[in-house]
Amino acid sequence: MTSIQFLKPDPSILARRDDIVSSLRSVLPDEAVVSDPVQLRAFETDGFTAYRRLPLAVVLPSSTEEVAAVMEALARKKVPVVPRGAGTSLCGGAIPQEDAVIVSLTRMSRILEVDYPNRLARVEAGVTNLSISEAVSADGFFYAPDPSSQLACTIGGNIAMNSGGAHCLKYGVTTNNLLGVTMVLYDGTVIRLGEGELDPAGLDLLGLVCGSEGQLGLVTEAIVRLIAKPAGAQPVLFGFASSEKAGDCVADIIAAGIIPVAIEFMDKEAIAICEAFAKAGYPLDAEALLIVEVEGSDKEMADQLGRIVEIARRHDVQTIKESQSATEAALIWKGRKSAFGATGRVADYICMDGTVPLSQLAYVLKETGEIVKRYGLRAANVFHAGDGNMHPLILYDVNDPVKRQKAEDAGNDILRLCVDAGGCLTGEHGVGIEKRDLMTHQYNDTDLDQMKAVRAAFDPEWIFNPSKVFPLEGRGETDGGKASADPDTRPSPMEAAE
Amino acid sequence: MIPSDKADRRIEPADETELADAVREAAEEGTPLEIEGGGTRTFGRPVDALATLSTARLSGIVAYSPNEMVATVKAGTPLTELQAALDEANQRFVFEPIDHHTLLGTEGKPTVGGMVAVNASGPRRFVAGACRDSLLGVRFVNGRGEIVKNGGRVMKNVTGLDLVKPMAGSFGTLGVLTEVTLKVQPKPETEATLAVRGLLEADAVTVLAHAMATSTDVTGAAHLPELTAGKVLDGALGSEPATLMRLEGFESSVHERAEKLKAMFGRLGEIETLDAERSQRLWSDIRDVKPFADQRQRPVWRLSMKPSDAHEAVMALRMEAGASAFYDWQGGLAWVRMEGGNTLSGLVRKTVAAHGGGHAMLIRATPSERRFAVPFQPQAKPLVTLEKRIRDAFDPKGILNPGKMVA
Ligand SMILES: Cc1cc2nc3c(=O)[nH]c(=O)nc-3n(C[C@H](O)[C@H](O)[C@H](O)COP(=O)(O)OP(=O)(O)OC[C@H]3O[C@@H](n4cnc5c(N)ncnc54)[C@H](O)[C@@H]3O)c2cc1C
């Protein structure tokens, strides 16, 4: 079986384990260093639960200074470091390796400053996404990127993955809402990019750091943009007899000059799963469902929804559900937002994240169906239709190694299809270990070498997250790719994220 | 070598492959190249080059599908050509790129590549992002003469490191852009601008911050103090200070939001409403720094700071030297003209640092001033080291626009 490989742990590091742990204890309080194997198990995987490795140790620093001290200590010993937030990564980005130390940012979860006149907040990297919005909500503001995992995931993880959410169509993803970071480099140097002004001085390193999957350094603080809340928000739900009709409807809404805050798509399988879980009143007879959300005053929303409904009618919409109250609106969203969790209750799944040009949506959706059928599997599709970011959830059984392999193979075929259709491997979940070996399908060697050269400018020794993002060829021996040892004890970041 | 303003050798490759060959050759010989698009954005430090490499012949729209709101264009394409295609489909750039012609008195046609290379953005930038936020993908030739692609044609993409963002605003020092893909958007049905008159700078910035704290979706927030107000709309706005808020969208919605803002700020005096046509002209004047487009060479600085800090820095500057200014981006972008004729870069930088930080860039100055005044903001030491290593990763021989971004 061709499981995803990690780099083979460096025996000389494993042999120095005690020495490494004691040097960590010399720069951190005792309780901030975890080395007990039982406790380490909580850190052996992330949201990509099919794979796991036990880390050498875990540290839980409380300040940028402590992070810098840790890095200084580890860089001298050339010990790999895996940054970690909440561990909700869906691509294995936060999975450690046996010779690596995890630096977990979860203790750095303070909101340091809220500045309304300048519409920004300065926060520590371990703060959860949702808690920023919660802290400023009473004053009429919010932080826009809203991954469905927002209750659990950290802003540091969001920056690493350039996370998006349902409302990105209007407000953009993390990189469009980030004004600055404080970052610790591999040797313990602390740099600050951006002070709250809009444009960087010099090269746009902030843009480079965002989406770099913990490859360039440890983000310890961030300055994020706050936005005034809209007067109101209202979703409408449409059921269609085919995905093509739903797709055409999306294209026409956009062509009409209406930019809703969100356009979410679900196929029949996803509708059934979500409806069974959330009882949101989704039409079980529909082949495809769209949730379109608009914002504004009551009058503005009525006006926009009127235009949108008219367009939907032109595409033979079968079901129209306009929310009459906040409760109804919440219910419409509940089904969508719990899609991953609900699916997790039905079966194990891997979630693909390819993005395709809007004109290719219907084609890729159809081909996706063909691919999973070929492998004798099922998939549920829920995704951000406004920006072409697809999320086929391929259902399988983690305890069945044959099925698991088939699911991974089907996933890889789907991602190649996305690239071939003019799209990319991952829109918002990151490459991690999951899509690492497909990078060569999207980029040639020159493209990858340029990225690696930039990576090396930050981290010449591959200290950070060494088994991730870039194919391992030429980087030393691999560990043979063992998968999850003991599925029954899997932690469930999915449930935590709901 | 006595630095001249223009190298005498000119290379105009016909396509990307030829361009890559030219750069590879230059790298082998160690020939420094000045990269030129339309030659309209002459800021940064003058480059001591032995040859000029022009993208002029890499021209044309490769793919533009209005339905997908995405356009792929060769770097040397005149901006006017792309703009015309967008107009035809009733679409636009959301980042409202500044045209530097007027301010700098340059001739030539701005190119799409040049726009991206300087990350040219305008009034809507403070809510809708800069050019870099709309830039989805690039192809470029690095300093080794290799053709590299990064990003793509889709709106969301975290596949590998994002080299797209640093390419925007790297002034041709990391690579020669050959093709770019940009996100565009439908034009709104209409727009209008409200003008509150007679406010002092501090009060104006407070008003704009209050407006931005409402749900009215203001997409332009500027303040023109006395003297600068009279320089837009061919003087039609009058010289009284003007605090400006732009609304865009469907007619009824613009009207409703305008009423809301008027109710909020009505106590400050009569609020004027500029209709769509005047509003459009007004914001293009603000975008292109029309108040300082005076044919004279008095130095112009661009300060990018926190909105609440910039006017205080300007105030402090005025105590020490003659300076006039106006503000965009809710106050966070200050355009400052030094009335004494000297750039006073030491003073400008010290003042910015003393008022919450941010950065100052010298946009208009004579070539000799740009050579000695350090046009870009100097950075903290660890960042200087890091930037140097990153530049080496793209252009190890340092042949692309050498020295242009030296700070
Ligand atoms: C149920 C569920 C729903 C999800 N929905 C969405 C969604 O809608 N949109 C979306 O974009 N994603 C979604 N995700 C994916 C995931 O939540 C995001 O990728 C999130 O940003 C990860 O944050 P985290 O704090 O959990 O990071 P982790 O999983 O701990 O780490 C993720 C990556 O970031 C690196 N990292 C973490 N912190 C730092 C730091 N401080 N400095 C440097 N590197 C760091 C890690 O090394 C790793 O590579 C979902 C996940 C789940 C389980």
TrEMBL record, chain B:
InterPro entries, per database record: FAD-bd_oxidored_4_C, FAD-bd_PCMH, FAD-bd_PCMH-like_sf, FAD-bd_PCMH_sub2, FAD-linked_Oxase-like_C, Oxid_FAD_bind_N, Vanillyl_alc_oxidase_C-sub2
Cofactor(s) required for function per UniProt: FAD
Ranges of residues in domain FAD-binding PCMH-type: 3-187
Keywords for the protein's UniProt record, in alphabetical order: FAD, Flavoprotein, Oxidoreductase
Example GO molecular function: oxidoreductase activity
Record carries keyword Transport: no
A Pfam family per the record: FAD-oxidase_C
PANTHER family: D-LACTATE DEHYDROGENASE, GLYCOLATE OXIDASE SUBUNIT GLCE
Protein's name according to its UniProt entry: Glycolate oxidase subunit GlcE
Organism (species): Notoacmeibacter marinus
